[in-house]
Design a protein that fits this description.
CATH superfamily of the largest domain: Tetratricopeptide repeat domain
Radius of gyration: 28 Å
CATH topology of the largest domain: Serine Threonine Protein Phosphatase 5, Tetratricopeptide repeat
Number of domains: 5
Largest sheet: none
Number of strands: 0
CATH class of the largest domain: Mainly Alpha
Distance between the termini: 52 Å
CATH architecture of the largest domain: Alpha Horseshoe
Strand content: under 5%
Number of helices: 40
Shape: globular
Length: 736
C-alpha cells in the first residue's frame, strides 16, 4: 500500500513560526513594487549609482527568456544583444555566455564577456568569474589564472568569490582560511567546516567549525550531527547566545527534545522559554514543561508567547487546574480570550458540566461574535442541525458564520454548505451568493473548488476530474524580490538560482527572527535550489503571522503571483505531465498528490518507509513490479518513483470506476479501508462521504489533495485563473 509522507514541520511556537498552514488570500494580481534594503546589505556600497536598477527594468523582455532552456532562447538573446537598451544587452550577453560555457563552447563566450564588467556593474564579479571559466574551457589556462587573481584583488570583499576561494583551497589551504574568515555564512564555508571536521573531528578549531555548521549550515545533511556534538561535547564552552543558535538549529530539524535542553540555557526571552517548555512537553517531560511554562509566565507576563504557553500548559495539568490557567488567559490576553473560553468549554464537557459548558459557548457567541472560536461553534451547530434534518436552522447558523466571520478560514467551509443547503431549500440567490463568496474571499480553499463545481465551472468533479486535461502555463517571468541587494535581485531575475541562494546566505543575517519579506525571499531561494519542503513551508507559514503589522505585510505579499507559486510550485513538471499522459491521469491531480505526499522531495523517507516523490511503500513497489512487468526500479529515482506512483493511482481509480474521491482516499488509507467505508454507507453524496471519513488523517489528506489540485488549476490554467479574478473583481465592486 502507498503511505503518505507526514512532514515533521515545526510545532506551534511563536508569531510566524508554526505548523504548516495553507490559509491563503487572493491570487494572480500583478501588483508589486520592489525595494532593496541597503542597511542590511554590505555589498550595496559596491554598486554606486545603481539605485533601484532591477525594479526599474523588471519589464525587460530579456528577463522573459531567463527561465527558458538554452536551445529555446539562443536566437532571441542574440537579437537582444543587437538592441539599444544597455541593461537588456548586458543581460543578454551574460545569459548567452553562460549557455555557451555550459555547452562546452567557452571560446565563443569570451568575446561576449570581455568588457562586460564595466557595462554591467550589478553583475561584475559574476561576469569576471564566467570569463575565467570560459578562458579555462577554451584552453587558455594562463589567462584564466590571471583573471582569477584579478578577481581576488578587485572583488575580494564580495561573496561572489567564495566558490573561487573554495576551488583554490583544494590545493592551497590558505584560501580556505580566507573563505572561512571573510564569508563564514557562505555555503562553501560550511562545506569547508564539514570537510575539516570529517578529516579531523578532534581538531583544535572544532568548536568554531561546528558553530559555522550551526549558524549557516542547517541545509547540510550533517547539520544534525554537528548540533548534537555542540550540545554534548562542548556544553561547557557555549555562551547563552551559542545555546540559542544550537536550540534554533535543533528546532528547525525537528529535534524538539534536544532543542528544549538548548533553549533552556539560552538568554531568557519569551520565544526561548516557550520553545524550551514546548519541546519538553511534546517529548513527554511533563514536569519540566510545566516548570518552564510557569517561568515564562513569571518573567514575561505580557508576552504573546506567554498566552500561547498558558494555553499549552492547560493541556498538561489536571482538568480542574486547567480551568484556572484558561481563566488567566481570558483575563490577561483579550485577543486570545475567545480561544481560551472555547478550550474552557471543552474541559467543562470532560468534567460533565454540560450547563457550564453551554453557558461558556453562549458567552463566546455574545461577547466574541467575530472570533474564530465563535465561527467554530456556529459551524458545529450548523452541521448538527443538518444531521438532524433541520436545514433551515443549519442555513441560519452557517449564515451567521459568513456574517460575523467572513474572513475566517471556517467561512469557506460554511459558505459552501450554505450554498448547498440554500439550493436544497430553494433559496437560489442565497446559495449563489454564498458559493461565489467562497471563491472570492477564500480562493485557496478546498471549498472554493467545491463551490466552483457547484457553480458549473469546468474544473472537474470527483467523478470527472481524472479525465480533465488542464492547460498549463507556468509563470514566465519573475517579479523583483521585496528585499535584497541589487546583485541578489539580478541573479534571481536571471534565473541564476544557485548563485542567488548562495548570496542570500550572506544577506540573510536575521534568520532567527526574520521580517515577513525576509522569510518570503528565503522561501523563494530555497525553492530555487529544489529545497522544496522548506521553501514551501517558509512561504506558506507566513499566513500564520500574529503581529498586526506583519499581517498587513503578508497581505501585500499575497498579492504577488510568486507568493502562490511559492506555496504551490511545480517542480518535476516534465515527469508529471509525461506519466500523467501515460496513465491518462489529470496532471494537476498528480501534482497535488505529489505535493501532499513529499513536498517534492525526491529522496525523502517516511517513518514507515514510504519513499520518494509519491511516497511509495517498498512492498507496494514490488507488487507493482510484478503487475506492470517492470525489470527494475529505484524508488529514490524521480522517474521510477513517479512511474510507480502514477501506476498505483491509476489502479486505485480503476478499483472505483474512476471516482477520484475514493481513489485518492485509497492511495492514503488503502483500498480495503475505503471499500469498508463505502459498504458501511451512511452518507448521502460524495461531499457527505468526504466529511465522514472515519480516519482524521485521511479526511485531511483528501481535502489537501483536492484543495491542492484546485490551487494548481487556478494558478497554472489561464482560463480558470481569469474566472477567479473576474469573480473577485465583481465581488469587490459589490462590497464597496
Amino acid at each position: 500500500m502507498v503511505k503518505r509522507f507526514k512532514a515533521n514541520l515545526p510545532l506551534v511556537a511563536i508569531a510566524g513560526i508554526s505548523a504548516l498552514s495553507l490559509g491563503m488570500g487572493a491570487a494572480l494580481i500583478n501588483t508589486v513594487s520592489s525595494t532593496s534594503d541597503p542597511s542590511v546589505i554590505l555589498e550595496e556600497s559596491l554598486l554606486p549609482g545603481l539605485g533601484n536598477l532591477t525594479a526599474n527594468h523588471a519589464d525587460d523582455p530579456v528577463l522573459a527568456l531567463a527561465l527558458q532552456l538554452a536551445e529555446q532562447r539562443q536566437e532571441a538573446l542574440m537579437a537582444a544583444i543587437e538592441g539599444r537598451e544597455p541593461l537588456s544587452r548586458s543581460r543578454a550577453k551574460y545569459l548567452l555566455a553562460l549557455d555557451l560555457i555550459n555547452s562546452d563552447r567557452g571560446g565563443q563566450a569570451i568575446p561576449l564577456l570581455e568588457g562586460l564588467e564595466a557595462e554591467y556593474p550589478a553583475m561584475a564579479p559574476y561576469v569576471a568569474l564566467a570569463l575565467a571559466q570560459a578562458q579555462r574551457a577554451a584552453g587558455q589556462g594562463a589567462a584564466a589564472e590571471q583573471t582569477q587573481q584579478r578577481i581576488l584583488n578587485e572583488y575580494g570583499d564580495d561573496s561572489a568569490i567564495a566558490p573561487l576561494l573554495f576551488d583554490l583551497g583544494q590545493q592551497n589551504p590558505a584560501y580556505w582560511d580566507q573563505l572561512v574568515q571573510r564569508f563564514p555564512n557562505h555555503p562553501k564555508a560550511v562545506e569547508v567546516a564539514h570537510q575539516r571536521l570529517t578529516a579531523a573531528p578532534r581538531r583544535a578549531d572544532a568548536l568554531p567549525m561546528l558553530m559555522i555548521m550551526a549558524r549557516s549550515g542547517l541545509h547540510h545533511p550533517n547539520a544534525g550531527a554537528a548540533l548534537l556534538r555542540l550540545k554534548t561535547e562542548f556544553a561547557n564552552q557555549l555562551s547563552p547566545e551559542d545555546w540559542q543558535t544550537v536550540g534554533f538549529g535543533l528546532w528547525r530539524i525537528d529535534s524538539y527534545g534536544d532543542a528544549a535542553v538548548a533553549y533552556a540555557q539560552a538568554p531568557p526571552s519569551p520565544r526561548n522559554l516557550y520553545r524550551a517548555a514546548r519541546g519538553h512537553q511534546v517529548t513527554g517531560k511533563r514536569d519540566r514543561a510545566i516548570a518552564l511554562y510557569n517561568q515564562l509566565d513569571q518573567q514575561f507576563p505580557d508576552a504573546p508567547e506567554t498566552a500561547t504557553g498558558l494555553l499549552r500548559l492547560a493541556q498538561s495539568v489536571s482538568d480542574q487546574s486547567a480551568l484556572g490557567v484558561l481563566d488567566q488567559v481570558v483575563n490577561r490576553f483579550p485577543d486570545r480570550a475567545a480561544e481560551a473560553l472555547l478550550e474552557r468549554a471543552k474541559v467543562l464537557d470532560k468534567l460533565n458540566s454540560a450547563e457550564s459548558a453551554q453557558a461558556t459557548r453562549e458567552l463566546i457567541l455574545k461577547e466574541y461574535k467575530e472570533s474564530d472560536a465563535a465561527a467554530d461553534i456556529r459551524l458545529k451547530n450548523a452541521r448538527s442541525a443538518a444531521e438532524q434534518g433541520d436545514l433551515t436552522m443549519a442555513l441560519s447558523w452557517g449564515g451567521d458564520v459568513l456574517k460575523h466571520s467572513p474572513d475566517s478560514d471556517l467561512a469557506a467551509d460554511a459558505g459552501y454548505w450554505v450554498g448547498k443547503w440554500g439550493r436544497q431549500l430553494g433559496q437560489a440567490d442565497v446559495a449563489q451568493n454564498a458559493l461565489e463568496s467562497v471563491i472570492a474571499r477564500h480562493p485557496e480553499s478546498y471549498y472554493a473548488w467545491r463551490a466552483a463545481v457547484a457553480l458549473g465551472w469546468n474544473v472537474g468533479d470527483f467523478k470527472t476530474v481524472r479525465s480533465q486535461v488542464p492547460a498549463l502555463a507556468p509563470m514566465a517571468q519573475r517579479t523583483p524580490l521585496p528585499t535584497g541587494s541589487d546583485r541578489l535581485q539580478e541573479l534571481y531575475l536571471l534565473g541564476q538560482d544557485q548563485r542567488a541562494w548562495e548570496r542570500w546566505q550572506i544577506e540573510y543575517t536575521n534568520y532567527q527572527d526574520p521580517t515577513p519579506e525576509e522569510q518570503f525571499v528565503d522561501g523563494l531561494m530555497r525553492l530555487g535550489t529544489n529545497d522544496n519542503i522548506n521553501g514551501i513551508y517558509q512561504v506558506s507559514s507566513l499566513s500564520l503571522a500574529d503581529d498586526p503589522a506583519d499581517r498587513k505585510v503578508v497581505q501585500d505579499l499575497k498579492q504577488r503571483p510568486d507568493f502562490w507559486h511559492g506555496v504551490y510550485p511545480l517542480p518535476y513538471a516534465d515527469l508529471i505531465t509525461t506519466w500523467s499522459a501515460q496513465r491518462q491521469l489529470n496532471p494537476l491531480l498528480v501534482a497535488a498528490l505529489m505535493r501532499q505526499e513529499s513536498r517534492f522531495e525526491a529522496k525523502i523517507r517516511s517513518g514507515v518507509g514510504a519513499a520518494g516523490l509519491m511516497q511509495v511503500m517498498p512492498a507496494t513497489a514490488e507488487w507493482i513490479k510484478g503487475q506492470a512487468g517492470l525489470d527494475t526500479y529505484d524508488l529514490n529515482n524521480p522517474e521510477d518513483n513517479v512511474k510507480l506512483g502514477t501506476w498505483y493511482l491509476d489502479y486505485t481509480h480503476a478499483e472505483y470506476d474512476n471516482h477520484s474521491l475514493f481513489a485518492v482516499a485509497s492511495y492514503n488509507a488503502g483500498p480495503g479501508a475505503v471499500a469498508s467505508w463505502i459498504k458501511r454507507g451512511g452518507y448521502v453524496d460524495a461531499d457527505d462521504f468526504a466529511e465522514k471519513i472515519p480516519y482524521p488523517e485521511t479526511k485531511g489528506y483528501v481535502q489537501s489533495v483536492f484543495g491542492g489540485y484546485w490551487n494548481y488549476l487556478r494558478l497554472y490554467d489561464p482560463a480558470i485563473a481569469q474566472q477567479v479574478e473576474t469573480l473577485q473583481k465583481r465581488h469587490r465592486g459589490f462590497r464597496g
